[in-house]
Write a structure and sequence with these properties.
Structural class: mainly alpha
Strand order of the largest sheet: 1-2-3
Distance between the termini: 68 Å
Number of helices: 4
Number of strands: 3
Largest sheet: 3 strands, parallel
Radius of gyration: 29 Å
Helix content: 55-70%
């Protein structure tokens, strides 16, 4: 329409646009809220473990420096040949170590696991299948950790239920 007067069509478009603006604002707010939830979930799944790892490592480093200590850890055992050789060397030097055992490696080597415990070494878990826990679902990762604990318990004839856990591949 000419001369600056609004037609009925123009008024209807303006009213629809006001509704569209409201819908756009609500959509933008919902999108921002969902994005925030995704970021928080990612932080919880990725950031919190990294923050905990950093914090725990600093505490251990400080304690080791204060005590002038060296911590020996052995991963991925027990092995039929290497683990007994390591145990012999540790015994010769009166040294203790921490063994992060893989559950699937325990079958048939239960006596070695019992020897590790009997000689006063710390037994910890490295999971059952040595999974890269960041590449599997959280549920599968947790089940792998629990299955590793069960394998250690079965070998030791105990029902402790949980053991310190270090993820394979450092992740």
């Amino acid at each position: 329409s000419g001369g600056g007067a609004l037609s009925r069509w123009d008024v209807a478009v303006i009213q629809d646009c006001r509704g569209c603006v409201w819908v756009r604002e609500v959509t933008a707010i919902l999108f921002a809220a969902i994005a925030l939830l995704v970021v928080l979930a990612a932080f919880g799944y990725i950031g919190l473990p990294l923050a905990y790892e950093w914090y725990a490592r600093r505490l251990l480093d400080r304690k080791a420096e204060r005590l002038h200590a060296l911590v020996l850890t052995f991963d991925d055992g027990p092995g039929s040949h290497l683990t007994p050789a390591v145990l012999e060397t540790l015994a010769e030097h009166g040294t203790k170590a921490t063994f992060f055992l893989v559950g699937r490696n325990i079958a048939g080597r239960e006596e070695i696991v019992r020897r590790i415990a009997h000689e006063g070494h710390e037994i910890c878990s490295h999971g059952y299948d040595h999974l890269h826990h960041w590449r599997v679902s959280p549920v599968r990762a947790i089940k792998d950790i629990e299955r590793g604990w069960q394998a250690i318990d079965a070998a030791l004839g105990e029902s402790r239920g949980t053991y310190p856990f270090r993820p394979p591949y450092g992740k």
